[in-house]
């Protein structure tokens, strides 16, 4: 999966926006205003930071050499995935996991707004 395909996939999810809050070089994907994925636009290697359940994060890092603790993120809750090595299927699954974690953590009022989209 390349960065354009990743972008299209993220934007296909309900309630997602694409933003540049950290400057012009970092794409950030948010659901209902909360970040679930980010990637550098001009990086030599296409990597993605994704939120992850802490126990699953450790398991993934142990199992896959291309998944590491989140670069510049809370390493307990974020992983960095080398998207050039991960399969498209795995990257989509990990992105959906991140997305669902964020959605499930939204306040009830925001979750209600999300359901009505």
From TrEMBL:
InterPro entries the record matches: YjbR, YjbR-like_sf, YjbR/MT2646/Rv2570-like
Superkingdom of this protein's organism: Bacteria
Protein name: MmcQ/YjbR family DNA-binding protein
One Pfam short name: YjbR
Swiss-Prot/TrEMBL keywords: DNA-binding
Keyword DNA-binding: yes
Entry's Gene Ontology molecular function annotations: DNA binding
